[in-house]
Predict the 3D structure of the following.
Amino acid sequence: MTYENLLKSVEESAQEREREIRDKAQSDADAIKTEALKQAEAIQQSLLEAARMSAMVERNKLIYLTKAENKDRLIATREKLYLQAFASASNRLAELRTDQQYPEIFKKLAVEAMSALGQEKITIRIDKRDERLCKEIMTGLKQSCEITTDLQIAGGLIVSSPDGSIIISNTVESRLERGRERLKLEVFSVLSGR
């Protein structure tokens, strides 16, 4: 019986060893599986974070582009309104000659230009429609001048020295143009509600 006991003992020992190997293999497999799950979760979290960052970058980019686009539209709208305001002013000033106060306005423009020139003999350029008015005003001011009617303007005059070295433009158009740039910031301020 010893031989049979020995065989039985070897067989039990082999089965025990097989169970240990299987348990160890199962334990190793479980450890590998757990580690693989941890790594997969870490990779998944990393990918989610990368996707989140990418989405945030794209969102910020779209917000920036939208803000820039809106700012460009606002600037274009302000510029359009500004140009419309001055076009409207220009249209109204084109009818200035029909205003009852035009003779007084013309006189102020003439006196202002002549005083800036500071010469006794001057040359005046005007629109043909202002010729009679200009002669009356110059006679009233006792101003010696040569009058030329070669302009087509909304009103006002250009005064110069006889040799043309000094020229002072005091036309409605030149005053509007000078005011345009000076008033641009003011108009934009009003348009933006500040």
Strands lie at 122-127, 145-151, 156-160, 167-171. The chain has a mean pLDDT of 86. Helices lie at 2-94, 102-117, 131-141, 172-192.
